[in-house]
Amino acid sequence: MSQKLSVVGKRIIQPDAAAKATGAAMYASDLKMPGMLIGKVLRSPYPHAKIKRIGKSKAEKLPGVEAVITPEDVTQWKPFDRGLKDLPMIAGGYLVPPDEHILNERARHFGDAIAAVAAINEHIAEEALELIEVEYEELPFVIDPEEAMKPGAPQVSDVAEGNIGKHLSYPFPEGDVEKGFKEADCIVEGTFSTTKQEHCTAETAAAVAHLDVNGRINIWSQCQVAHMARREIAHIFNMPVSKVKLMTPLVGGGFGQRGSVCAEPICIALALKTGKPVKLEYTREENFTALESRTGFKYNLKIGFKQDGTLTAMQVYMLGRLGGYMGCGPMASVIGMVFGLGHYRCPNRAGEADMVMTNTPVSGAFRGFGNPAMMWGIEQLVDEAAEKLGMNPLKIRLKNIKKAGEIANMGLRLESTYLDECIKRGAEAIGWKEKWGKKKEGKMRRGVGIATMTHCSGAAPLYLDHSNAFIKLNEDGSADLTVHPAPLGQHIWGALSQIAAEELGILAEDIHIVTGDTDITLFEYGSDASRSTYAIGSATLIAAHQAKEQILERAAKMLGVSPDELEIKERQVYVKANPKKSIPVADVCYDAIYNFKGECLNISGKCSWEGRWNSSPTGAFFAEVEINTETGRVKVIKFVTAIDCGKAINPMTVEGQLEGGMQQGIGYGLTEDYIINKDTGVVESDNYDTYKMPGILDMPETEVVIIDKPDPKGPFGAKGVGEPGMVGVAPAIANAIYDAIGVRIKDLPITPEKVLKALGEKSQ
Amino acid sequence: MKQIANFIVNGKACELAIEPHMLLVEVLRDELGLTGTKQSCGIGHCGACTVLIDGIPTLSCLTPALTARGKNITTIEGLAEGTRLHPIQKAFIDYGAIQCGYCTPGMILSAKALLDRNPNPSREQVKQALSGNLCRCTGYVKIVDAVLAAAESMGKEASE
Question: At B157, is the pLDDT very low, low, confident or very high (cuts 50, 70, 90)?
């Protein structure tokens, strides 16, 4: 694509940035309505318990309390799957049985919702919770998935016999793995485990609900998939979809956690019971225990290689911990296998997963979904094989990475890839040649490591991948673009403005984003799977193109030429051969609207887009670490991410996504551990005093290398870049640790204790 | 029982009847409608609720409101002069230091306290000054860039 771009590729300022910098930005947690009540939820202190009796009269009598609801008060509403998968959204008939109630009479995990109150302020609501008398019957519980699969283990859910929530297979198996391993000259294998990382969104889950004058549910929801959340809410509360208006305010971080319904069901139940507006805002502790966090795995991985480093076979068996409800967790295994086994060219591939229910908080989607978990093992084993085969880690990867035109991870065509350039340029940036494989001595030892990945730019063909955009041109040449991504901080409004403006030949600031209201927006699958810029951007581009054709057609008439003789640049329609002859876009739009000659038209375009392709972003991650061999402490000194995300619509935003991904990846790799007490089932890490996410002093020197070459399918050549940033961080650190001190840590996170233990074992 | 308390919030005197147990973050958000001050962890570990009390960055989620009686409180809403943004706000916008924006008010106020006492900080000093503010989106890189850029532009403004 040799197209000259004037808006795409620019480091534009985001439309919502000023409001966020001045405190004017409104989030769900900031909303206030006249007569609004505050909701609070009573949560189980036990991992598994039956509610024998709930006494709510004392709480109800407290002045200022307007409603106290318990499981028996919500029986008229349907059970649901919080991951929205009790209703179709995944191809192949995958469904999750609705298994969770708004309030539950058998608590299945620490923090499960038992009862809720609505009161005139937060203090009274909290006091009311303390007045609810609950008689629990503690039940035997199970925390560990392997224990949960044993005969006689406590049964977590009625819909998961033997606690197997789902048994899932790799959807794109290939060849014969037995044969592949027979052909291998070198086989590497290992057991790897990953953690239940918490999203730590800056804003906790929050929702505001009320009934409007027509008795419709109005809900301000942070959900990343607004339209499907509206469908789910209508389903739960026995209403037609048209009776639910879902509004999306600015969201203080999502990272996949808001891909499920969070505070919405209880908030709406309280609003329906009281007939008043209700705000329900979770505490940080509730965010940790009541919402989904990353799915933790233990898996056995085996990879075969020929003497020259060519892959012959890959096989994995994954065991995943779901928690008390299924939600989005099961699919984390499928996505992990899809991205992991589909990353390199390998003729024989197979994978199976058991996703097991346990009495622990629920697992779900988190940036990268299963990809970071799977690459954690794959990239370590590739390094192990390289060493055995006497190959450089860069070379073995360059040998096995796919080329454009091959079958990509999602079973579709690999539209473009510049992973080879990512590896080469990233290696240069970290100083690979000078640093890797050198002899280390002394107390403090440094090393460098690499990991690579392939991700997606959308949900096709596994999930529904349906986006819509509508654009209309106003009489002054500005445009209103109606779309419904979730504004999570990923700067999607800016990116879509750039795409629309580029196509229309106007400026990014000419685009006004109309959004966040399901009454107005067309169906939108939503913001996950790194798809917003790619999928909603594709819909936006086509809608803008339709509008542009109308502008050109009318301008042609006004200028007395044919439309193909025209082009639009910087708000002006020019005759290409004679640029002196031109007319402002605004004049064309004005004439179309205030037309007194019988030719009125509001210039507009609309596109329903469905993903039939899915371009894969690729990337290489490089860590330089320093290890204190006396304390086991690992410090990341420098981190480089080299990304092939197609054409960067806004390089500043791409950098921001990747720098943020590094922070989350470093936390995943080194410090973030979701601790559940094995004896009590209590979550012990439920706030930042007990759960360490990296702060500013924990961050290394960073560098982002953007390859910036357009993809043939994405809008202006863009590919997804939301999730890739964290995928390869932890394995790059693990490989750097091996380079520094010669030990492999296969169990996340890499704590000083594990490093010291491994060093001790090595010296024996 | 409620007590009458006087504060100077963003330069304006205000008198409020407040319960002794109320925290400053609640008074600012719920009583004064200054929702730019965010609450994120509630235990003083994330810095989202940072405000300036007599110029000193303070965690409003741990501060009983009555202890701030008679003091000058600056929230994020008090930084711009009319529509003219404070240079730190402008730098955060220009440098892409804002993603979800929820930690932004606290970050900007911590940065302001730093630049007020040290107009020309090193990169390391900026990191130290912001070490009580957690961000989950940005990896902090552009935040540090923005604070350094703001220091530079404020230095230029001061010398003009």
Answer: confident
